[in-house]
Amino acid sequence: MQDLLYFIQQLINGLTIGSTYALIAIGYTMVYGIIGMINFAHGEIYMIGAYTALIAITGLAALGIAWLPLILIVALVCAMIVSSSMGWAVERVAYRPVRGKHRLIPLISAIGMSIFLQNYVHLAQGSRNIGFPALIEGGFRFGAEDSFQTSITYMQITIFATTLVCMTILSLFISRSRIGRACRAVSQDLGMANLLGIDTNRIISATFVIGAALAAVAGLLLGMYYGSIDPLFGFIAGLKAFTAAVLGGIGSIPGAMLGGLILGVAESMTSGYLSGEYKDVVSFGLLILILLFKPTGLLGKPEVEKI
Amino acid sequence: MAAHNLKHALFCAIVTLIISYPILGFNLASEGTTVTLEGAKTSTIVGVLLAAVVVFLFQLFRDNLMGSLRQLPAVNPLANRKPMEQSKRLKLESTLLTLMIIGALVWPFIASRGAVDLSTLVLIYIMLALGLNVVVGLAGLLDLGYVAFYAVGAYTFALLSQYYGVSFWFALPIGALLAALFGLVLGFPVLRLRGDYLAIVTLGFGEIIRILLNNMTNLTGGPNGIGGIPDPTLFGMEFGRRVKEEGNTSFHETFGIAYSGEHKVIFLYLIALVLAVITAIAIRRLMRMPVGRAWEALREDEIAAKSLGLNRTAVKLSAFTIGAFFAGFAGTVFASKQGFISPESFVFLESAIILAIVVLGGMGSQMGVILAAIAVTILPELAREFSEYRMLIFGAAMVLMMVWRPQGLLPMRRIHIELKKQE
Questions:
Q1: CB distance A108–B196 less than 8 Å?
Q2: Chain B residue at shortest CA distance from A110
Q3: Can you give the pTM of this predicted structure?
């Protein structure tokens, strides 16, 4: 019974982290699906979202506003606006001019952008980590009083619920809206979509904006969950999210969700049963293994090499 | 058209404000557990507003600006010059190289101790950049975990000296070979992957090595690192004031000169110089050998190279292993120079810096890479007050370089034969 409760606890923790990875992974997978590049600066956009949310929360607190839903919504909206503008600007400045060149060139440009953004926030806000207030406290507990108890905090429930809502909206947007349909067309064949009158530049920009907005949501959620942020925390999270995207099959949106959840659970099981220090080793190891044995991921389509 | 431009300019200006004002305009300060918000300095806010105005004006008049820029006569005097004849160019290059090496040999005897120490670091970066140049520049394999091989070299020497008392000269080949072995073992499975997947896998590998070094506390000392790494000896002569190991003599006593701490610094510099020159020459030779040609062929067109009978895996693996070998070299020298190493020195940023050197110098071009290594290491030292902006400028330079001049400052020129026109 004890063991089962412990296991369930790790599962819940893993799913919580995993669902936020999934949110970030969407940005990677959509961009890769359309223009076939790894947006290395995506982790930084997520970090900027978290910083903006914290600035908004602190600003509202200074103004004396204490109504929780209002604070959360304002922080969320601010973070999404700033992050999506950042996503748009990054694509415009660093990726559009090098689009279509040799594969390594956009990738190096993206690494440069990632270093630039990291240091931009580092210089503006300092390198120390800053406490993020836990606005949502409390939770449910299961199990006997005197032994190990499984708990689900309200924060975790909020994360699940928000992720679910975001994913539903995204799926509806991709499958029903005009831009969503254009996105799918462009990811199937960019040149053909262009010939058929789709403004591909706008669609690519839209992809970056959508991915950045979802990353900002993850930034706010994970900031509250972990309780502190620093300019470097986007890097590892971005890498994890990329792993999740590859795990699920890069280019596939349901794959990113599945990959995020699997990765989150794998990580929390490692921390729970082995040691927290090795969780990064496990996720990178997982990435290497997947790329070796099933480079298309769980839900990805095999790629045909054309001459 | 004008209305469309105005709308676009306004949009760009607003985006500039959105991405800069919240982050730059408010400073988060934490006192204990409470976080407070402070407004930024007026100068910062004025700067942000000014940036938005500049973006607005630029976008508004972009068509005119670009048009008038194009009408300007070509200012670049080198643009229309005839390429130098190949034999002349090679002669010029070798003269320059000889001069550089002579200059580098004289340098430690005229410069201050600090400058020589810094030059040793420059040489280590040159070795690293030349090694990575083989992998990225010649073979076209983007390796983002190059620092892992550097760490293997450094830790090999540190651990061997700590546990078995192995000296620098024994550890040097062992470190390099072990790093090469790591390259081989890692490369074997991952080199089948496509370019950008390879980048991520090597990045993951680099992080795994660093995390392992950090956590295997009883072997590597964890975050505390390993100290007391011995200096290299010259034929059994030590450079310390007192001889540490039995059977050795000390340098200053043998030659009957006064003890000076500078001897050791100069000696290390010379070792690094010799190794860097060896690295450069070895790679220069390799480039002209069939294997070097195969690297470039594979970089240019994998399918064509394959259909001409090249073994893809073997060619890639050789580049990867040779790159790792030289990183191991550099790592051993680094460990000996610092006398202390910890996982802090082997973070991803270090890989990114080495990559930036290769990219800035011009992928594949040895001369360019050497000059870029010197510039990237020395410029931040010269401009100390800007040192906090170093990485910001690095990142921006990488992006700008890719946008404007992806071939680098001193692009690689292929050795080729020109057909003479028939009379």
A1: no
A2: B399
A3: 0.86
